[in-house]
Design goal:
It is built from eight helices and 19 strands. It is an alpha/beta fold.
């Protein structure tokens, strides 16, 4: 129901106005700006409604798309061309036949095997519901110190958001530099800017444990070249990457690529001719590298959705 899924649904409906187009979305929101969430949490954007591009009601009224939030597809029966769906409000299960199916299950936040990662006050940021939980937690709990685990896009954007709330921030990255996918000369000015903004940077540092102190606050135990250090925190954000949600497709017998994401051709068609896939759950052929790669970014997801909808 987010970028790729709604792009595919909208394009299909424009191409064939008489077609019945149904979107099943497990969560409560569709078509929102995930990239804007750190800035909303940091107070630069508000209220949350500004992140929502399209509501289910407007999708039905303006685009003729039957959007059903709170519905989870639990199984794809490719042989019978039906999906099994659970209504999360009533727990009722039903089947829905299809002529063509688009899988746009996205990606999920990677959960590192760190003791204490499930403690209250420890969050990941992937969906708008995640962002809502973080925002509510900060609104209800006076927080002065944040520890961000992971120095990628989301980690650094959230570090900025926490600083915008006048919080002390420490960023912990296991690799030798922040933004590990970038060349060092590009990262140096970013790191210098963070230091200028009084963000504490820990590179080549591994988190070994998250625990609660006697006063109920959080403590992040890290191991670096300096030995073991305890970083106090009122909130911890785990931003250690994402993984493709490809299990549903795999269970249906669809081909996965070497990246673990769903294999698709140039038309976003999977190994089943009646099933397409788009978004963060698929891999794409990279024309420069000459191989399939996984690029979980919004522009790629939206373009892939439009291709699938065609």
């Amino acid at each position: 129901g987010d970028g790729a899924g709604m792009s595919a649904a909208s394009k299909a409906k424009r191409n064939q106005p008489d077609a019945e187009v149904i979107v099943f979305e497990r969560g409560p929101y569709i078509s929102y700006s995930a990239c804007g969430m750190p800035y909303w949490i940091g107070g630069q954007i508000g209220p949350m409604d500004k992140l929502v591009v399209l509501t289910p009601e407007r999708a039905r009224e303006r685009r003729g798309i039957d959007v059903r939030i709170g519905h989870e597809v639990t199984q794809i029966d490719a042989a019978q061309q039906v999906v099994h769906v659970r209504n999360l409000e009533t727990d009722a299960i039903f089947t829905q036949p299809y002529d063509k199916l688009v899988i746009a299950t996205g990606a999920r936040a990677a959960k590192p095997p760190i003791p204490g990662v499930d403690l209250p006050g420890v969050f990941a940021l992937r969906s708008l519901s995640d962002g809502e939980r973080i925002y509510d937690y900060l609104s209800q709990n006076p927080a002065r110190r944040a520890v961000v685990i992971g120095g990628g896009y989301i980690g650094l954007e959230m570090a900025e958001g926490f600083r915008d709330r006048d919080m002390q921030v420490a960023v912990v990255e296991m690799l030798p530099q922040l933004l590990p996918n970038f060349d060092p000369d590009m990262v140096e000015p970013v790191a210098a800017h963070l230091v200028e903004k009084e963000v504490e940077i820990w590179t080549q540092t591994r988190v070994t444990q998250i625990r609660q102190s006697t006063d109920g606050a959080l403590e992040v135990i890290v191991q670096s070249g300096k030995g073991e250090t305890t970083l106090p925190a009122d909130i911890v954000l785990v931003a250690t990457g994402v993984r493709p949600n490809s299990e549903l497709a795999q269970a249906a017998g669809l081909k996965l690529g070497a990246t673990g994401a769903i294999w698709v051709d140039a038309q976003m068609r999977t190994s089943d001719p009646h099933i397409y896939a788009a978004g963060d759950c698929v891999e794409h052929f990279h024309r420069v590298l000459g191989e399939n790669v996984w690029i979980p970014l919004a522009p790629v997801a939206n373009r892939g959705g439009r291709v699938a909808g065609d």
